[in-house]
């Protein structure tokens, strides 16, 4: 993967995105998650849900 643009705000969630070049083409991805979708990945939501329920016990 190669970053092809400077960071700029996402039009939907306003987090930083960059244009990333892959062997198959280019795609806008969020910094930190490197995913095209807005929001945290599903595994991060599951981890935080498990942590908060454990802490509440």
Q: Provide the structure class.
A: alpha+beta
What share of the residues does DSSP label as strand, in percent? 25-35%
* Termini separation: 42 Å
| Morphology | globular
Tally the helices: 1
- Percent helix: 25-40%
* Elements, N to C (H/E): EEEEH
Radius of gyration over all CA atoms, rounded: 15 Å
- Unreliable segments of 5+ consecutive residues: none
Can I get a quick summary?
Helices cover 26% and strands 30% of the residues. The chain has one helix spanning 42-56, and strands at residues 2-3, 8-9, 16-22, 25-30.
Written overview of the protein:
The protein has 57 residues and is α+β, with helices and mostly antiparallel strands. Helices cover 26% and strands 30% of the residues. It is built from 1 helix and 4 strands, in the order E-E-E-E-H. Strands 1, 2, 3 and 4 form a 4-stranded antiparallel beta sheet that branches. The relative contact order is 0.17. The model has no long low-confidence stretch (mean pLDDT 85).
Write the layout of secondary structure elements.
Elements: E1 2-3, E2 8-9, E3 16-22, E4 25-30, H1 42-56
Antiparallel strand pairs: 1-3, 2-3, 3-4
Features of the shown structure:
57 residues; alpha+beta; 1 helix; globular
């Amino acid at each position: 993967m190669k970053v092809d643009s400077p960071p700029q705000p996402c039009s939907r969630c306003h987090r930083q995105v960059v244009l990333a070049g892959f062997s198959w083409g280019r795609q806008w991805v969020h910094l930190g998650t490197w995913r095209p979708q807005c929001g945290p990945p599903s595994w991060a939501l599951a981890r935080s849900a498990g942590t908060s329920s454990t802490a509440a016990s």
